[in-house]
Amino acid sequence: MRNRRLLYSAVLGVTGIVLAAGITTLASAEPSHQTAPVALSHPVVKGPKPTIVLVNGAWSDAASWGRVVKRLQADDYPVVAPPTALRSLSGDSAFLASFLKTVQGPIVLVGQSYGGAVITSAATDNPNVKALVYISAFAPDTGENVATLTGRFPGSHISNDPNAPIPTALSPVPVPFLTPDNKPEIDLYAKADQYRDLFLSNRVTAAVAAELAATQSPVASTALGEPSAGVPAWKKIPSWYLVSDDDHLIPPSAARFMATRAHSHIVEADTPHAAQVTNPGIVTSLIERAVAATR
């Protein structure tokens, strides 16, 4: 029963793809992080541009960045979206850290959902990473996992039964591998009939949501409960954060807590969890703001 409760709390904090739309607020750069309504303008960046590295979250894949990639490439940015294996936070972070070392020149590193936890570990001590951008994402401190962060704040739709061994929005599927400490592993899928609400807050058609649910990438339960290790990159690298006010996975209060703690430049929008899928313009503009501010 204890293991079941641990698994349940681990999955409470996980997220998939992102959405952004509507009016935004930009946080002040001052320590108070007070916000004031502004239009999220499209900054013009001249000269050589950094490589934009996009990191997907759970129940998503690199293809979820497609509309953001198209916009960034139209603005002459080099862009890469390496796949996230979703097997373990330490393994996913180590892979990304190695990948980043192959990128020449400055990098703006973008993480969505669980991908935020990955970039938080992977970017540490890499001098080429000039900015971090969190899109409805986790920004853990040392020793935290996605469950502990989400569990501090109410509002996630991951389950309507706090006593269920597996959150009601998820289906566990046994997979034929063991964790590094030789424990049996399971994959977690978001149920198709709840995918639209969880990730998209019912803002796309049922047909679009069904296609995304059918092509989702499951996450290993180990990845959700594993604590973040090492000094978080946001303590040394400037960061930007999109808070989705209609997020059904990460409660907006949890997102604000993480963004404020990281001293991020905060943009809030009336958006669901999966911002780049239906409203990639806001996501792209935030990335380009980070570029302009760190050049």
From TrEMBL:
One protein family per Pfam: Abhydrolase_6
Coiled-coil segments on the chain, per record: none
Region forming the signal peptide: 1-20
InterPro entries, per database record: AB_hydrolase_1, AB_hydrolase_fold, Sec-Metab_Biosynth_Hydrolase
Organism listed in the record: Kribbella ginsengisoli
Domain of life: Bacteria
MF-aspect GO terms: hydrolase activity
Name by which UniProt lists this protein: Alpha/beta hydrolase
Keywords noted in UniProt: Hydrolase, Signal
Domain AB hydrolase-1: 52-280
